[in-house]
UniProtKB/TrEMBL annotation, chain A:
Function of the protein: DNA-dependent RNA polymerase (RNAP) catalyzes the transcription of DNA into RNA using the four ribonucleoside triphosphates as substrates. Forms part of the jaw domain.
Record-stated family: Belongs to the RNA polymerase beta' chain family.
GO terms for biological process, alphabetical: DNA-templated transcription
Protein EC: 2.7.7.6
Source organism (scientific name): Salinadaptatus halalkaliphilus
The protein, known as: DNA-directed RNA polymerase subunit Rpo1C
Subunit comment: Part of the RNA polymerase complex.
GO annotation, cellular component aspect: cytoplasm; DNA-directed RNA polymerase complex
From TrEMBL, chain B:
Entry keyword Membrane: no
Record's catalysed reaction(s): RNA(n) + a ribonucleoside 5'-triphosphate = RNA(n+1) + diphosphate
UniProt-recorded name of the protein: DNA-directed RNA polymerase subunit Rpo5
Matching InterPro entries: Arch_Rpo5/euc_Rpb5, RNA_pol_subH/Rpb5_C, RPB5-like_sf
Main location: cytoplasm
Binding partners and assembly: Part of the RNA polymerase complex.
Gene source species: Salinadaptatus halalkaliphilus
Stretches assigned to the RNA polymerase subunit H/Rpb5 C-terminal domain: 2-73
Length: 397, 75
């Protein structure tokens, strides 16, 4: 007997478990029955059977064009998505691309999203103590020289002078010696460090070189991860009622961040599906595609798109072990049929190439059969029906 | 190194035994090359998986309780 988390008797469980329903629907049936304590086993059986009949009825039939249905089901609400690239200041004031541009970016499988971001969860005391959480922030956020102190140029002596702020140094857990060392390594100059003052200059006195050095100095990342320009820290209530600190980052470096102490490597995510693929594998990438497309639609109030359509898209995109885009460089471009490819985009190129290489179209798919005016091999188009020449007596066999 | 299998986005991956594989292939009436693929370099792949193995993946499904899918390891 299966364990059921609802207060119903064993006979009821037996009749419900006997149906062909998935777990989620069985639980719904139990929930309904729980609320009707006077329902008999017969009632329960009738209810379960009715739900089952409805469920079996709504399943996809053999030869149903699921791809076409998905395309329409995502395409229609897609017309209601915002078309501008305007960034909606969503969670924690981090700009994230929304709406249609984001959806296109996902199905095109762009190498980097327009606005990369990460949601970094923390573990243990890092998640509960603000001080500890800030430690992680300084290890992630790229610290540039201007955040650490003032930079000035002394034109008379041809020197760059940096006066560091001791409080900032302590807070960001970096010493003046380290700063000086990083400057020497990156710029190839020798520095003179005295307390929080650091000085250096070009080898030959040259005004241009001096300005060049200042420019380069500004670009050095002293602490944290180069790609991550900003981190926002937020205290959020979790599902179980407890509160914890969550970091939102502008820019992403998923692999690097997972390695940092205090980061919870089991929940942290980013919005770059390629980074997820690289670090967590193709199955995680599939999950991320579903999650991201679903969120993008839900954000615009279009969450009534059935998740199965998005799952189909994600399955197609991850089918060969790599993330493939939908479109002429990906899935549509790798179709077997010349006519199907030509019907999609850049018609002339496809026909020309096919002619040059002497390609043959087997007319197996839908598009090419529509083009040549033959019935398509889907639904009723793929079954042959003949009038029976045998009598009704043999039909029962 | 981070333990990838602990991440909540990563479902359970196990190598499918040959007997079970035959059963799966005959159930769907397909060849193993018809299965979806997974790269040998994939981060979530079990360490001892080799090219040609079939990986059984048990996902927490959004539409049913659990969904079992199979992927063939390719270079």
């Amino acid at each position: 007997m299966t364990e059921v988390a609802f207060d119903v008797d064993d006979d009821t469980i037996a009749v419900v478990e006997d149906t062909d329903l998935p777990r989620r629907l069985k639980d719904n049936v139990y929930e309904e029955l729980e609320g009707r304590p006077d329902a008999t086993v017969e009632d329960a059986d009738e209810l379960a059977k009715a739900v089952e009949a409805r469920y079996v009825d709504t399943r996809v039939e053999p030869l149903d064009p699921v791809g076409t249905v998905s395309a329409q089901s995502i395409g229609e609400p897609g017309t209601q998505l915002t078309m501008n690239t305007f960034h909606y200041a969503g969670v924690a004031e981090i700009d994230v691309t929304q709406g249609l541009p984001r959806l296109i970016e996902l199905v095109d499988a762009r190498k980097t999203p327009d606005t990369p971001m990460m949601t970094v969860y923390l573990e243990d005391e890092y998640a509960t103590e603000r001080e500890k959480a800030h430690e992680v922030v300084w290890n992630i956020e790229a610290t540039k020289i201007l955040a650490l102190g003032d930079v000035s140029t002394n034109v008379a002596d041809m020197r760059v002078q940096i006066s560091l702020n001791q409080d900032t140094l302590t807070e960001r857990m970096i010493t003046a010696e380290e700063v000086a060392e990083i400057i020497e390594d990156n710029l190839g100059v020798s520095t003179v460090q005295n307390g929080t003052e650091i000085q250096f200059g070009p080898e030959e006195p040259s005004y241009r070189d001096l300005l060049q050095l200042v420019e380069e100095l500004r670009d050095i990342t002293f602490k944290g991860i180069e790609e991550i320009s900003r981190v926002v820290i937020r205290r959020e209530e979790m599902d179980d009622g407890s509160e914890e600190f969550i970091l939102y980052t502008e820019g992403s470096a998923f692999g690097d961040v997972l390695e940092i102490e205090g980061v919870d490597a089991s929940r942290t995510t980013c919005n770059n599906i390629h980074e997820i693929h690289h670090n967590l594998g193709i199955e995680a990438a599939r999950e991320a595609i579903i999650e991201e497309t679903n969120n993008t639609l839900a954000e615009q109030g279009l969450d009534d798109v059935n998740v199965r359509h998005l799952m189909l898209v994600a399955d197609m995109m991850t089918n060969n072990g790599d993330i493939e885009s939908i479109g002429r460089h990906g899935i549509s471009g790798s179709k077997e049929s010349v006519l199907a490819r030509a019907a999609f985009e850049v018609t002339v190129n496809h026909l020309l190439n096919a002619a040059i290489h002497g390609e043959i179209d087997e007319l197996d798919g839908v598009t090419e059969n529509v083009i040549v005016g033959k019935p398509i091999k889907l639904g009723t188009g793929d079954v042959d029906l003949r009038m029976g020449s045998t009598g009704p007596s043999t039909q029962a066999d | 190194m981070v333990d990838v299998s602990k991440h909540e986005l990563v479902p359970e991956h196990t190598i499918l035994e040959d007997d079970d594989l035959e059963e799966v292939l005959s159930e769907y009436d397909i060849d193993r090359t018809d299965l979806p693929k997974i790269k040998r370099t994939d981060a979530a792949l079990p360490d001892d998986a080799e090219i040609g193995d079939v990986i059984k993946i048990v996902r927490d499904s959004r539409t049913t309780d659990q969904a079992v899918v199979y992927r063939l390891v390719v270079e």
